[in-house]
Amino acid sequence: MDRTIKELVSSGAKPILSSDDLGWSNITLSQWENIPPAHMYDASLANRHVIAIQGTQEPMHLQFFHQANRTEKKMAAGDIQMLTAGEKWSCRWTRSISFVKLEIDPHFLGQIAEESGFGHVGNGKLETKSLVKDEKLIVLTRWMIEEVRNGGASGELYSQSLATTMAVHLLRNYTSHAKSAGASYQATNQQVTAVIEYMRMNMENDISLKELALVANISLSYLVRLFKRHTGVTPHQYLIQLRMERAKQLIRCGHMSLKEIAAQIGLADQAHFTRQFKKATGVTPLQYASSR
């Protein structure tokens, strides 16, 4: 590789925002501002897909180099570049550039494809594309940025949900043959969404698996398999996570006693609530409240 080409991170450039401190691994996010003119490559492409969303407000010309080929593209704010893992790309720009970068683990993409009914997507392969316009992808990225800025305040369940939603969107739109499975995925996704919404609306009650199966209009055993395939956990585990996230919100508000919070989230008493909360978060409700 040309010695004048620098690696993005080792060049001294640093992101102004990164998901690294939150421990995200399947999809990571970083935001870069006003990186000076340079010719660089991204070493993360060795084993991860890279999506770069242009943030520079004024349109600018970028030169892309792939093997012996060179192309020049005029990119505006919001334009998206998708690069496939394992490919060697470098990019040159002549004035300061800003962008958001997403890195996607191909194995995670392949896992979501299998679990969500898309079938086998070879090595989680994402298509290389330039100058993509995709408002939904932009919105999902904004939600990720907000969560990183907030220090992961919405919890691991929320970040996992964002990553899975992003993966499904990429599978439906930017892999070679996954679109054919879209209709099947949509039907099962609606069933899981209905169950989650029922949990949210009724978490103060003693919700049974039988109730949830009736909401989804499927058998109990199939519900457990389907739900775990889409969320990574059983309905019971998901309900506990929902309850704990709701408890955190109520604790932060500071207007209710622990006994009242326990009743609001459907737990029998304060002692039961304290045990569940500590098991989920590693601290007691009172310790959590004092750290706010």
Automatic annotation (TrEMBL):
Residues 193-291 form the HTH araC/xylS-type domain. The lineage of its organism: Bacteria, Bacillati, Bacillota, Bacilli, Bacillales. Pfam families: HTH_18 (PF12833). This is AraC family transcriptional regulator. PROSITE patterns: HTH_ARAC_FAMILY_1, HTH_ARAC_FAMILY_2. SMART domains: HTH_ARAC. It comes from Brevibacillus nitrificans. PANTHER family: ARAC SUBFAMILY, HTH-TYPE TRANSCRIPTIONAL ACTIVATOR RHAS-RELATED. SUPFAM superfamilies: Homeodomain-like. GO terms for molecular function: DNA-binding transcription factor activity; sequence-specific DNA binding. Keywords: DNA-binding, Transcription, Transcription regulation.
